[in-house]
Amino acid sequence: MGELEKLREENRLLKEKIDTLTAEFDSCKTTEWERETVLQAVEDSLGGIAIFDRNWNIKYVNPVLVKMWGYDSGEEIVGKKTKEFFTEKSKKDLEKANKATVKNGYWQGELIGKKKNGSLFSILVSQSVVKDKGGNV
Q: For residue range 77-103, what is the model confidence (pLDDT) as tens digits?
């Protein structure tokens, strides 16, 4: 193989590598755009949204949920167990709902919530399991 052919082959391989990296970069930009768009949609949602882990610890709440439950900020809610926001009767119903969610992947029903000031209110709850690309909760 002559010197010119070696350079052409190296150039071809380099171009393939650049094309691959460019595609990966574009994919990351799209992913970042999608992430930001979804986050903004959740923040701007007209309904309350909470995200919690497998142990029912609250990890995130949107502004509507904070207002709905009578709190001043999400920091007052994040880190607590979901059951802390319901009446004793509803805690039992919530436990059944959580078991159903784990079993079926989804649950919807009405519970009695307890606001920051102690007042009670009826709330329609729908909750679903979120899985990653590997199918893990």
A: 999 999 999 988 888 898 999 999 989
In this structure, the strands spanning 106-114 and 58-61 are: unpaired
pLDDT more than 70, % of the chain = 92
Beta-strand (E) ranges in the chain?
Answer: 50-52, 58-61, 106-114, 120-128
Q: CB within 8 A of 134, min separation 6: which ones?
A: none
Contact 10, 1 (CB under 8 A): no
Phi-psi region of 110 (alpha: psi -120 to 50; beta: other; left: phi over 0): beta
**Cβ neighbours of residue 42 closer than 8 Å, sequence gap 6 or more:** 49, 62
| Token digits of residue 42 | 């959740």
Say if residue 68's pLDDT is above 90.
yes
